[in-house]
Amino acid sequence: MKSSDYDSEILSSWQKNAEPWTCAVRDGEIYSRVTVTDAAIIKAVMDASPKRVLDLGCGEGWLVRALADVNIDAVGMDGIPALIDNARALGGDFRQMSFQAFAMNGWSDEVDCAVFNFSLLGETIVADVLRVIPLILSTNGQCIIQTLHPAYVAEPYIDGWREGCWSGFSERFSEAAPWYFRTLSSWLSLFSDSRLQLIAMHEPINPETAKPASVIFVLKVKS
Description:
Number of domains: 1
CATH architecture: 3-Layer(aba) Sandwich
Order of helices and strands: HHHEHEHEHEHEEEHEEEE
CATH class: Alpha Beta
Shape: globular
Structural class: alpha/beta
Radius of gyration: 16 Å
Number of helices: 8
Strand order of the largest sheet: 3-2-1-4-5-11-8
Distance between the termini: 38 Å
């Protein structure tokens, strides 16, 4: 199956699961987020001291609202209409735009920080999106990516598509989206190809397992 076919499956899954996802996030049903990863991404953004943030793949908008609570101006972008509607219902600046449109230079506003919080699921579309990031970052701007830690995925340690699952989620979810696994070296090569330079890496620890719950890459535009 082509990468674009997997991308279509990802969009279809999120369209079908927009409502249960919104409920799960707002009701605190995702343990790793409540205990580790939400706070980790907020801290990473705050450490960058941005005035203007773009949350790409914002979902139901929690991060935009959390940043507003600490006086950081943020705008959320997502390609799923239902998620954007749910985000707007609680207030904030949210724009409906797919990654495909973004990759075609669909975003014109400069930002100090571009954030991807578990939203980079595809293969070629991720490369297309990251190549645009240097064009929208202000001088000394940063790109911050939180994703699954490559070293702690129970699969062969090689790049490739993986089947999604909703293990640990409620029965309201269906048809989990596929996602593309990258090794650590593949992530670093992708950043380099996108004119992005790694300046910091964080590994938020899950207190129950004493293993990383995620990895956070902090990047700047190559000089």
